[in-house]
Amino acid sequence: MRHHRLVITSSLAAALLSACGTSTTALPSPNSSVAPNSSIASNSTISSNSAAADSSTTTTQESTTALAQSGANFKWVLASNVLQDLKGYPSLFAKVSAAGVLEITPSTSNPITGPSIIPAVKFTSAAALEAAVNGKLVPTWARAVVYDPEHWSFTPLNEQINPGAASQAASKVAKGAGYIYVVTPALDLSKAIAPNEPISAQLLEEAGVFSQLAVGADAMVIQSQSLQSDISAFDSLLSTASAEAKQSNPNIMVLGGLSTNGRGVTPTSESLLSAYESAKNAVQGYWFNVPGQNQYCPNCPASNQSLAISFFSLIP
User: Fold this and answer.
1) Domain at 43-314: CATH code
2) Separation CA 242–CA 220 (nearest Å)
3) Residues paired with residue 287 on neighbouring β-strands, in sequence order
4) Rounded to an integer, what distance in angstroms lies between the CA atom of residue 166 and that of residue 155?
5) Are 245 and 252 contacting, i.e. CB atoms less than 8 angstroms apart?
6) DSSP 274-298
7) What global pTM score does this model have?
8) Are 74 and 100 contacting, i.e. CB atoms less than 8 angstroms apart?
Protein backbone atom coordinates (compact mmCIF):
# COMPACT_ATOMS: atom_id res chain seq x y z
CA MET A 1 0.00 0.00 0.00
CA ARG A 2 1.26 3.48 -0.82
CA HIS A 3 -0.23 6.92 -1.38
CA HIS A 4 -1.04 8.67 -4.65
CA ARG A 5 -2.38 12.00 -5.87
CA LEU A 6 -5.70 12.03 -7.71
CA VAL A 7 -6.70 15.06 -9.76
CA ILE A 8 -10.28 16.30 -9.39
CA THR A 9 -11.94 16.89 -12.75
CA SER A 10 -15.47 16.43 -14.05
CA SER A 11 -14.62 12.99 -15.34
CA LEU A 12 -11.89 11.82 -13.01
CA ALA A 13 -12.04 10.91 -9.34
CA ALA A 14 -10.04 13.25 -7.14
CA ALA A 15 -7.66 12.50 -4.33
CA LEU A 16 -5.00 14.01 -2.19
CA LEU A 17 -1.78 12.43 -1.08
CA SER A 18 -1.32 12.28 2.67
CA ALA A 19 1.78 13.60 5.00
CA CYS A 20 2.36 12.15 8.36
CA GLY A 21 0.28 13.89 11.01
CA THR A 22 -0.09 13.78 14.75
CA SER A 23 -3.27 13.23 16.66
CA THR A 24 -4.77 15.93 18.84
CA THR A 25 -6.31 13.29 21.09
CA ALA A 26 -4.62 12.40 24.36
CA LEU A 27 -3.28 8.86 24.38
CA PRO A 28 -4.12 6.30 27.02
CA SER A 29 -1.20 4.90 28.97
CA PRO A 30 0.11 1.53 27.77
CA ASN A 31 -1.31 -1.45 29.62
CA SER A 32 -4.10 0.73 31.01
CA SER A 33 -7.80 0.03 30.78
CA VAL A 34 -9.43 2.21 28.10
CA ALA A 35 -13.16 2.72 27.95
CA PRO A 36 -14.66 1.64 24.60
CA ASN A 37 -15.69 5.19 23.64
CA SER A 38 -12.61 7.01 24.95
CA SER A 39 -9.99 8.63 22.70
CA ILE A 40 -7.04 6.70 21.80
CA ALA A 41 3.74 -6.57 3.79
CA SER A 42 5.13 -10.42 2.96
CA ASN A 43 2.78 -13.42 3.36
CA SER A 44 -0.56 -13.40 5.23
CA THR A 45 -3.76 -15.38 5.74
CA ILE A 46 -7.44 -14.94 6.45
CA SER A 47 -10.07 -16.98 8.34
CA SER A 48 -13.62 -16.11 9.33
CA ASN A 49 -14.31 -16.04 13.06
CA SER A 50 -11.95 -18.98 13.43
CA ALA A 51 -9.27 -19.53 16.05
CA ALA A 52 -5.87 -18.56 14.70
CA ALA A 53 -3.50 -21.49 14.83
CA ASP A 54 -0.43 -21.30 17.04
CA SER A 55 2.48 -20.06 14.94
CA SER A 56 4.33 -23.29 15.51
CA THR A 57 1.42 -25.43 14.30
CA THR A 58 1.21 -26.52 10.70
CA THR A 59 -2.00 -25.41 9.01
CA THR A 60 -3.49 -28.32 7.12
CA GLN A 61 -5.19 -28.01 3.77
CA GLU A 62 -8.36 -29.44 5.31
CA SER A 63 -8.59 -26.68 7.91
CA THR A 64 -7.89 -23.88 5.45
CA THR A 65 -10.46 -25.32 3.07
CA ALA A 66 -13.06 -25.23 5.82
CA LEU A 67 -12.13 -21.63 6.57
CA ALA A 68 -12.42 -20.63 2.93
CA GLN A 69 -15.83 -22.28 2.68
CA SER A 70 -17.05 -20.38 5.73
CA GLY A 71 -16.17 -17.06 4.08
CA ALA A 72 -13.99 -14.15 5.14
CA ASN A 73 -15.19 -12.24 8.18
CA PHE A 74 -13.04 -9.43 9.56
CA LYS A 75 -13.38 -5.70 10.10
CA TRP A 76 -9.74 -4.64 10.06
CA VAL A 77 -6.68 -5.32 7.95
CA LEU A 78 -3.57 -4.53 9.99
CA ALA A 79 0.14 -5.14 9.64
CA SER A 80 1.51 -7.35 12.39
CA ASN A 81 3.60 -4.51 13.83
CA VAL A 82 0.47 -2.37 14.23
CA LEU A 83 -1.29 -5.20 16.01
CA GLN A 84 1.76 -5.63 18.22
CA ASP A 85 1.61 -1.94 19.17
CA LEU A 86 -2.06 -2.33 20.11
CA LYS A 87 -1.14 -5.13 22.50
CA GLY A 88 0.38 -2.45 24.73
CA TYR A 89 -3.17 -1.20 25.31
CA PRO A 90 -5.07 -4.33 26.41
CA SER A 91 -8.60 -2.95 26.18
CA LEU A 92 -7.94 -1.51 22.71
CA PHE A 93 -6.36 -4.74 21.54
CA ALA A 94 -9.34 -6.71 22.83
CA LYS A 95 -11.81 -4.36 21.12
CA VAL A 96 -10.04 -4.35 17.76
CA SER A 97 -9.20 -8.05 17.64
CA ALA A 98 -12.73 -9.06 18.70
CA ALA A 99 -14.08 -7.31 15.59
CA GLY A 100 -11.93 -9.58 13.42
CA VAL A 101 -8.47 -8.80 12.04
CA LEU A 102 -6.71 -9.89 8.88
CA GLU A 103 -3.09 -9.68 10.01
CA ILE A 104 -0.55 -9.05 7.26
CA THR A 105 2.59 -10.74 8.50
CA PRO A 106 6.07 -10.94 6.94
CA SER A 107 6.77 -14.47 5.77
CA THR A 108 9.84 -14.64 8.00
CA SER A 109 7.92 -13.73 11.16
CA ASN A 110 5.38 -15.42 13.38
CA PRO A 111 1.89 -13.92 13.54
CA ILE A 112 0.07 -12.75 16.63
CA THR A 113 -2.54 -15.33 17.53
CA GLY A 114 -6.10 -14.90 18.73
CA PRO A 115 -9.61 -16.28 18.19
CA SER A 116 -10.53 -13.65 15.58
CA ILE A 117 -7.10 -12.91 14.12
CA ILE A 118 -6.40 -14.29 10.65
CA PRO A 119 -2.70 -14.35 9.70
CA ALA A 120 -2.14 -13.53 6.02
CA VAL A 121 0.75 -13.21 3.62
CA LYS A 122 0.83 -10.52 0.94
CA PHE A 123 2.11 -10.71 -2.64
CA THR A 124 2.50 -7.84 -5.09
CA SER A 125 2.49 -10.23 -8.06
CA ALA A 126 -0.21 -12.75 -8.89
CA ALA A 127 2.36 -14.93 -10.63
CA ALA A 128 4.51 -14.98 -7.49
CA LEU A 129 1.47 -15.84 -5.38
CA GLU A 130 0.62 -18.78 -7.64
CA ALA A 131 4.21 -20.00 -7.60
CA ALA A 132 4.38 -19.84 -3.81
CA VAL A 133 1.11 -21.71 -3.36
CA ASN A 134 1.92 -24.34 -5.97
CA GLY A 135 5.43 -24.76 -4.61
CA LYS A 136 4.15 -25.04 -1.01
CA LEU A 137 6.28 -22.05 -0.05
CA VAL A 138 3.55 -20.20 1.84
CA PRO A 139 4.26 -20.22 5.60
CA THR A 140 2.44 -23.00 7.38
CA TRP A 141 0.70 -20.52 9.69
CA ALA A 142 -0.98 -18.72 6.80
CA ARG A 143 -4.75 -18.96 6.43
CA ALA A 144 -5.15 -16.43 3.64
CA VAL A 145 -3.18 -14.92 0.80
CA VAL A 146 -3.40 -11.30 -0.35
CA TYR A 147 -2.75 -9.98 -3.86
CA ASP A 148 -1.75 -6.29 -3.87
CA PRO A 149 -1.65 -4.99 -7.47
CA GLU A 150 -0.36 -1.45 -7.88
CA HIS A 151 1.26 0.73 -10.55
CA TRP A 152 4.81 0.10 -9.42
CA SER A 153 7.79 -2.08 -10.24
CA PHE A 154 6.67 -4.83 -7.83
CA THR A 155 3.59 -5.72 -9.92
CA PRO A 156 4.36 -6.97 -13.47
CA LEU A 157 3.12 -4.63 -16.18
CA ASN A 158 0.90 -7.27 -17.79
CA GLU A 159 -0.87 -7.70 -14.44
CA GLN A 160 -1.31 -3.94 -14.11
CA ILE A 161 -2.88 -3.75 -17.55
CA ASN A 162 -5.26 -6.65 -16.91
CA PRO A 163 -5.49 -7.03 -13.13
CA GLY A 164 -8.84 -8.82 -13.31
CA ALA A 165 -7.45 -11.76 -15.28
CA ALA A 166 -4.35 -11.95 -13.07
CA SER A 167 -6.46 -11.91 -9.90
CA GLN A 168 -8.92 -14.52 -11.13
CA ALA A 169 -6.08 -16.89 -12.01
CA ALA A 170 -4.46 -16.35 -8.59
CA SER A 171 -7.81 -16.85 -6.88
CA LYS A 172 -8.30 -20.26 -8.46
CA VAL A 173 -4.88 -21.44 -7.29
CA ALA A 174 -5.25 -19.98 -3.80
CA LYS A 175 -8.75 -21.23 -3.13
CA GLY A 176 -7.93 -24.58 -4.70
CA ALA A 177 -5.28 -24.95 -1.99
CA GLY A 178 -7.78 -23.98 0.71
CA TYR A 179 -6.76 -20.37 1.35
CA ILE A 180 -9.08 -17.42 1.67
CA TYR A 181 -8.20 -15.01 -1.12
CA VAL A 182 -8.09 -11.21 -0.78
CA VAL A 183 -7.29 -8.63 -3.46
CA THR A 184 -6.25 -5.05 -2.58
CA PRO A 185 -6.20 -2.86 -5.72
CA ALA A 186 -4.52 0.56 -5.63
CA LEU A 187 -6.16 3.46 -7.44
CA ASP A 188 -3.00 4.16 -9.45
CA LEU A 189 -3.74 1.08 -11.58
CA SER A 190 -5.57 3.60 -13.76
CA LYS A 191 -2.13 4.74 -14.96
CA ALA A 192 -1.66 1.36 -16.64
CA ILE A 193 -4.94 1.93 -18.53
CA ALA A 194 -4.34 5.58 -19.36
CA PRO A 195 -0.64 6.46 -18.81
CA ASN A 196 -1.05 10.11 -19.77
CA GLU A 197 -4.04 10.77 -17.51
CA PRO A 198 -4.04 11.62 -13.81
CA ILE A 199 -4.70 8.79 -11.35
CA SER A 200 -8.43 8.21 -11.56
CA ALA A 201 -10.74 6.06 -9.48
CA GLN A 202 -13.53 6.90 -11.89
CA LEU A 203 -11.55 5.45 -14.79
CA LEU A 204 -11.19 2.17 -12.90
CA GLU A 205 -14.94 2.13 -12.26
CA GLU A 206 -15.75 2.87 -15.91
CA ALA A 207 -13.37 0.14 -17.07
CA GLY A 208 -15.05 -2.37 -14.76
CA VAL A 209 -11.82 -3.10 -12.89
CA PHE A 210 -13.47 -3.51 -9.48
CA SER A 211 -16.09 -5.82 -10.97
CA GLN A 212 -13.42 -7.98 -12.63
CA LEU A 213 -11.27 -8.13 -9.50
CA ALA A 214 -14.25 -9.23 -7.41
CA VAL A 215 -14.68 -12.46 -9.38
CA GLY A 216 -13.37 -15.35 -7.30
CA ALA A 217 -12.26 -13.17 -4.37
CA ASP A 218 -13.45 -13.64 -0.80
CA ALA A 219 -12.67 -10.02 0.04
CA MET A 220 -11.51 -6.86 -1.69
CA VAL A 221 -9.78 -3.89 -0.06
CA ILE A 222 -10.10 -0.73 -2.14
CA GLN A 223 -7.12 1.49 -1.35
CA SER A 224 -9.13 4.65 -0.81
CA GLN A 225 -6.73 6.28 1.67
CA SER A 226 -5.57 8.97 -0.77
CA LEU A 227 -9.13 10.34 -0.68
CA GLN A 228 -9.62 10.24 3.09
CA SER A 229 -9.32 14.03 3.45
CA ASP A 230 -12.15 14.55 0.92
CA ILE A 231 -15.11 12.93 2.64
CA SER A 232 -17.46 13.29 -0.32
CA ALA A 233 -15.02 11.71 -2.80
CA PHE A 234 -14.06 9.03 -0.26
CA ASP A 235 -17.65 7.96 0.33
CA SER A 236 -18.54 8.18 -3.37
CA LEU A 237 -15.64 5.95 -4.40
CA LEU A 238 -16.34 3.27 -1.81
CA SER A 239 -20.09 3.29 -2.42
CA THR A 240 -19.72 2.99 -6.19
CA ALA A 241 -16.85 0.50 -6.18
CA SER A 242 -18.51 -1.69 -3.56
CA ALA A 243 -21.73 -1.81 -5.55
CA GLU A 244 -19.78 -2.67 -8.70
CA ALA A 245 -17.89 -5.48 -6.95
CA LYS A 246 -21.06 -6.98 -5.49
CA GLN A 247 -22.75 -7.01 -8.89
CA SER A 248 -20.24 -9.62 -10.09
CA ASN A 249 -19.79 -11.32 -6.70
CA PRO A 250 -22.70 -10.82 -4.25
CA ASN A 251 -20.82 -12.71 -1.53
CA ILE A 252 -17.64 -10.65 -1.57
CA MET A 253 -16.66 -8.61 1.47
CA VAL A 254 -15.53 -5.08 0.53
CA LEU A 255 -13.31 -2.88 2.69
CA GLY A 256 -11.81 0.58 2.26
CA GLY A 257 -8.42 2.06 3.11
CA LEU A 258 -7.32 4.58 5.77
CA SER A 259 -3.81 5.73 6.59
CA THR A 260 -1.83 7.70 9.15
CA ASN A 261 0.34 9.05 6.34
CA GLY A 262 -0.71 12.26 4.65
CA ARG A 263 1.17 14.32 2.11
CA GLY A 264 -0.16 17.83 1.97
CA VAL A 265 -3.03 17.10 4.36
CA THR A 266 -2.12 16.13 7.89
CA PRO A 267 -4.60 13.57 9.29
CA THR A 268 -5.76 13.55 12.90
CA SER A 269 -7.62 10.85 14.78
CA GLU A 270 -10.78 12.94 14.40
CA SER A 271 -10.40 13.40 10.61
CA LEU A 272 -9.73 9.68 10.22
CA LEU A 273 -12.82 8.93 12.29
CA SER A 274 -14.89 11.19 10.02
CA ALA A 275 -13.72 9.26 6.95
CA TYR A 276 -14.36 5.96 8.74
CA GLU A 277 -17.91 7.02 9.65
CA SER A 278 -18.70 8.44 6.20
CA ALA A 279 -18.44 5.13 4.34
CA LYS A 280 -19.24 2.59 7.03
CA ASN A 281 -22.51 1.72 5.30
CA ALA A 282 -20.70 1.10 1.99
CA VAL A 283 -17.91 -1.14 3.28
CA GLN A 284 -17.51 -3.78 5.95
CA GLY A 285 -14.22 -2.57 7.36
CA TYR A 286 -10.89 -0.92 6.59
CA TRP A 287 -7.24 -1.58 5.97
CA PHE A 288 -5.75 0.83 8.51
CA ASN A 289 -2.27 1.45 7.22
CA VAL A 290 0.56 2.87 9.36
CA PRO A 291 3.29 3.18 6.73
CA GLY A 292 6.93 3.86 7.38
CA GLN A 293 9.87 4.33 5.05
CA ASN A 294 10.71 1.08 3.26
CA GLN A 295 11.27 -0.31 -0.22
CA TYR A 296 7.56 0.01 -1.01
CA CYS A 297 7.31 3.61 0.19
CA PRO A 298 10.80 5.16 0.01
CA ASN A 299 9.46 8.69 0.47
CA CYS A 300 7.25 7.94 3.44
CA PRO A 301 8.09 9.59 6.77
CA ALA A 302 8.53 7.61 9.96
CA SER A 303 5.49 5.58 10.95
CA ASN A 304 3.00 7.32 13.26
CA GLN A 305 1.92 4.66 15.75
CA SER A 306 0.57 7.21 18.22
CA LEU A 307 -1.99 8.42 15.69
CA ALA A 308 -3.12 4.83 15.14
CA ILE A 309 -3.61 4.32 18.88
CA SER A 310 -5.56 7.59 19.13
CA PHE A 311 -7.79 6.61 16.21
CA PHE A 312 -8.63 3.18 17.58
CA SER A 313 -9.53 4.72 20.92
CA LEU A 314 -12.26 6.70 19.17
CA ILE A 315 -13.87 3.66 17.52
CA PRO A 316 -16.96 2.46 19.44
Assistant:
1) 3.20.20
2) 9
3) 77, 257
4) 11
5) yes
6) HHHHHTTTT-S-EEEE---SBTTBT
7) 0.79
8) yes
